[in-house]
Amino acid sequence: MLTVRRRVLEAIKAQLEDLPNNPNGADYPLHFSVVEIGPLGKAETRKQYAVGIETGPEKKNTRFPITDCRLPVTLTMRMTVNRGDEKSALEAEKLLGVAQKKILEDITLGGLAIDVRETGNEVFLELYEDRMVYVALYLEVLYRHNTKDPTQLV
């Protein structure tokens, strides 16, 4: 049994997995090695590009028979900067830009959502020479389901 919420998360995952594996591509110059629903584990630090899809407290408003949902989603991205890559800060900006562009390509997530909005973003660097880059992209997903059945899209 998949709720609409779970299908929304799976759709975000599919969008991020759908990046072409073409490091020289102008639109998408990187490909995520790992895309997971939930926080990233320690093993993913060995991958060059990884993203975890995490959720925050969901808000709901019921107008029978419809429940409107506002789901905060954070894309937590990690990148290992290798020799030959640009400086860490520039790689972080590239990583953020790719995720923003890909998510905003389909703000209905294939018809599951009413809207996907970016509410903010953050780059975490301690030193300019950092080899590990962390980026967070904050989203809000608006979707609806049947009040009596969270698996039924309305």
Topology of this structure?
Layout: H1 4-17, E1 34-37, E2 49-55, E3 59-63, E4 66-80, H2 88-104, E5 115-124, E6 132-146, E7 149-153
Parallel strand pairs: 1-2
Antiparallel strand pairs: 2-4, 3-4, 4-6, 5-6, 6-7
**DSSP helical segment count:** 2
Secondary-structure content class: alpha+beta
Mean pLDDT: 91
By CATH, the architecture is named: 2-Layer Sandwich
Count of β-strands: 7
Query: Which range best describes the helical content: under 10%, 10-25%, 25-40%, 40-55%, 55-70% or over 70%?
Result: 10-25%
Radius of gyration: 17 Å
Query: What's the main sheet like?
Result: 7 strands, mixed
Query: What is the global morphology?
Result: elongated
CATH class assignment:
Alpha Beta
Share of residues in strands: 35-45%
Chain oligomer state:
single chain
| Tally of individual domains | 1
CATH topology: STM4215-like
Reading the helices and strands in chain order gives: HEEEEHEEE
The end-to-end span amounts to: 17 Å
Indicate the low-confidence ranges by residue numbers. Answer: none
Protein described:
- The protein has 154 residues and is an alpha+beta fold.
- The protein has a single domain (4-135), classed as 2-Layer Sandwich (STM4215-like).
- It contains 2 helices and 7 strands; from the N terminus they run H-E-E-E-E-H-E-E-E.
- Strands 1, 2, 3, 4, 5, 6 and 7 form a 7-stranded mixed β-sheet that branches.
Give me some keywords for this one.
154 residues; alpha+beta; STM4215-like; seven-stranded mixed sheet; 2 helices; 7 strands
